[in-house]
Description:
The protein has helices at 2-26, 68-81, 114-117, 122-140, and strands at residues 39-48, 55-64, 97-103, 106-111, 146-151, 154-155. It is of the alpha+beta class. It has one domain.
Amino acid sequence: xxxxxxxxxxxxxxxxxxxxxxxxxxxxxxxxxxxxxxxxxxxxxxxxxxxxxxxxxxxxxxxxxxxxxxxxxxxxxxxxxxxxxxxxxxxxxxxxxxxxxxxxxxxxxxxxxxxxxxxxxxxxxxxxxxxxxxxxxxxxxxxxxxxxxxxxxxxxxxxxxxxxxxxxxxxxxxx
Length: 175
């Protein structure tokens, strides 16, 4: 009788281990500690054309965050990283986004000084940089209709000495 009870217990344990193993094999792996599950969204980024005469749209999958500020950072950092499909980079690659926030329909982007230091390309290059930022941000955010560009936390009159950026910048003015 003891042998029968022992055999039943062993068989039950083996069956339980087998079922747990099968369930674990089907379960998705948890995200590594500290890493949220990544979702993506399709956005349109705008880069310059080779002749600096127009904006080139580029559809791209970027990380989707749980808040608008996180999404805003994703877009700005994607612009800094540059195009993948043939457009021309519009922001100096050394540029860093220091802060981003949205207030009353205006997106504020605070960049490091490299955004102004590296504005090669004269008026056309500066225009492409501003137009790219304004059109990328406003076309990908419902309720954002203007962009303010800050450098090192300060409002600036111009990025490269050619065009004024001291007020809210709207897409209709930067096509």
